[in-house]
Write a structure and sequence with these properties.
376 residues; alpha+beta; Porin; twelve-stranded antiparallel β-barrel; 40% strand; elongated
Length: 376
């Protein structure tokens, strides 16, 4: 399994994103992938996400007389708010409002995420944009270390990431093809903490497990729709304790579509498709329902993703720019080129003055030469 996941990472790197939990990405981004852009100062973005997987949990072998099959659900819901603080800097606060844990109770609410992102660093005439960000995960949920989902240690987790985006249309990034790559490191920070087990007990973590995470995404706009594709995954650089349920490396492919009926609203629909193997090599010594029920060993084979985003521009922007965020980008570009033309005109005027001074100097040199001849 590890060799296959390593191969997938090599493919990611060669084709030219840090994996975020769906619904907590915020700023400009996809379900899992950040773009290199940041929100303009004063802009608010609000988002909501629901992701789920379900399967009929049939009994393996001969079922007990009192067993009745039931649908197995894995559901999580998130809300987020992003704010443009200053140029090149925004922040996102996201809350997992609900999470199936398959312990004795669900998380209502779950964990809290805070992301500080510096970005919109343009180069190559705006075709490329870079960003750096850091994310903190606060364990506000009651239960952690639940199966079939990303590992939540129950400690304050944190990570650092960087990303680069290519925009075919640098003036209207959302109106042209965009390519996005993220790379990040995540520390679960659980050493010495008590980690929850499904049977209601806890165990003390002996290591701080760490992950290397990568994402690759592409967006292709066609009018009101944007067709999207993401590929993301994680490899543990420091393997967690054997009682951790989500201790396997993983990789997913996420096709999705975004519908934007208004400048201030968009709706996303997609599905995560697991492309890493369905096996378990590291988790041992804990209750394992997949031994008796026809359920996955690590991550589910698919997970549906639903999302909606709303944008609120700063006061006065609607009247000044027509209310569309893209209009703001156009105006900023126009202001930039107007300044370039002003500087060019100043340079031309200065060049003319320099030419006149050069002629004056040439005349002065001729007069000096004549005077020298007369003196001789």
């Amino acid at each position: 399994m590890r060799k296959l996941v390593l191969l997938l990472f090599i493919l990611l790197t060669c084709t030219l994103a840090y994996s975020q939990n769906p619904g907590t990405t915020g700023s400009f981004g996809f379900f899992h992938t950040h773009e290199g852009r940041t929100l303009m100062p004063g802009r608010w973005d609000f988002g909501a996400n629901l992701n789920f997987w379900t399967k009929l949990g049939e009994y393996l072998g001969e079922a007990p007389p009192d067993f009745s099959a039931a649908n197995y659900w894995l559901v999580a819901g998130n809300v987020s708010a992003s704010y443009g603080i200053i140029n090149n800097l925004d922040a996102t606060l996201a809350l997992r409002v609900y999470q199936d844990t398959h312990h004795q109770e669900n998380n209502k609410p779950g964990d809290l995420f805070l992301t500080i992102k510096g970005g919109s660093f343009n180069f190559e005439r705006g075709h490329f944009t870079g960003a750096l960000w850091t994310t903190l995960r606060f364990p506000t949920g009651k239960v952690h270390n639940y199966p079939l989902a990303e590992y939540a240690s129950g400690a304050v987790e944190y990570g650092f990431s960087g990303g680069i985006s290519y925009y075919y249309n640098p003036y209207l990034p959302g109106q042209g093809i965009g390519l996005h790559f993220n790379l990040g490191w995540w520390n679960h920070n659980e050493k010495g903490s008590e980690v929850d087990i499904v049977d209601g007990t806890t165990r003390t973590a002996t290591v701080n497990s760490q992950e290397l995470k990568m994402n690759l995404a592409i967006g292709i706009p066609t009018g009101l729709f944007q067709f999207r594709m993401e590929m993301f995954g994680g490899i543990y650089t420091t393997i967690p304790d054997p009682f951790v349920y989500s201790a396997e490396d993983y990789a997913f492919l996420t096709p999705s579509i975004r519908y934007s009926p208004y400048n201030w609203m968009s709706v996303d629909l997609g599905v995560d498709i697991r492309i890493s193997p369905d096996d378990r090599q590291r988790t041992t010594g804990v209750p394992d329902f997949s031994n008796v029920l026809d359920l996955p060993k690590n991550y589910p084979p698919w997970k549906a993703q639903l999302g909606v985003q709303f944008s609120l521009l700063p006061a006065g922007v609607r009247e000044q720019y027509g209310g569309a965020a893209d209009n703001i980008q156009i105006r900023r570009r126009l202001n930039f080129y107007e300044k370039v033309m002003e500087e060019k005109a100043k340079a031309a005027k200065l060049e003319k003055e320099i030419e006149e001074l050069r002629k004056v100097r040439e005349n002065a040199d001729l007069e000096i030469e004549k005077l020298r001849e007369e003196l001789e």
